[in-house]
Amino acid sequence: MSDVRDVIIIGSGPAGLTAAIYTARANLAPLLIEGEPSSTSDQPGGQLMLTTEVENFPGFPDGIMGPELMANMRAQAQRFGTEILTEKVTSVDFSERPFRVSVRDTEYRAHSVIVSTGAQSLMLGLEPERRLIGHGLSTCATCDGFFFRGHEIAVVGGGDSAIEEATFLTKFADKVTIVHRRDELRASKIMQDRAFANPKIEFRWNAHVTDIFGDTSVSGIELTDTTDGSVSTLAVTGLFIAIGHRPNTDLFVDKLAMNPETGYLITQDNSSYTDVEGVFACGDVQDDVYRQAITAAGSGCMAAIDAERWLEANVHH
Question: Is 143 a catalytic residue?
């Protein structure tokens, strides 16, 4: 059993890297499989690689660039002995212990596994999105709202999170236009009432965004009417896309319990335990409420401590 590791961590955002720092310092010699740079869904470093400036991570009073924060965490994990593999996990077998984690033809075995594959924001699928994310285009109001003081901005979506984001953004922006492809919202009644009562919020019904203008930052959007196909433009300097998130859980279908509607992994209350003993989950792959770098890091710490104690009780005793 000499080739069986104590712990394998799958995914490398703030959750996975924090789990690596903690398990490495506990002498568990973790192997972290971080994903491939080519794939946007599970690229090394996660969603923070797409953000420019992070101003709300404690300990950085002047802010820090998202990629730099991730590089720092990665170096810290390696300093304590984390082995990092820049590959994409292609399959997992949790049916018996030790667990098996495969990268194409190579199989790795471990007594415990920490899943931190994260989530991705659903996007509109327009070419300018790639160029403008972090430059006036955002998928997180609580992360970026502060940068839009005095701006006129648009929020795309009609669910609770879209209305919540729009309402939050009125603290900073002069005007927020909610763009929705239907003529009524999906959001709960109380959220709708709040939005309708807010003098800073306007609505563009039956419209969807078909283009985003701006070379280096957002300068406006093109709207196409879903009823008659007419095209109009809206001059905004910020665009928030709030049409939902998708956790990166394809690997774990039928292997771990997940919410049947959203696909988020289910963990036990106040712990990182999944329904398979010895498999833990942390970060945005199981958190559809907070979705912040700091909460992901915190849950990565929880998963590391849970895994360490579980190994102590079940493997090392």
Answer: yes
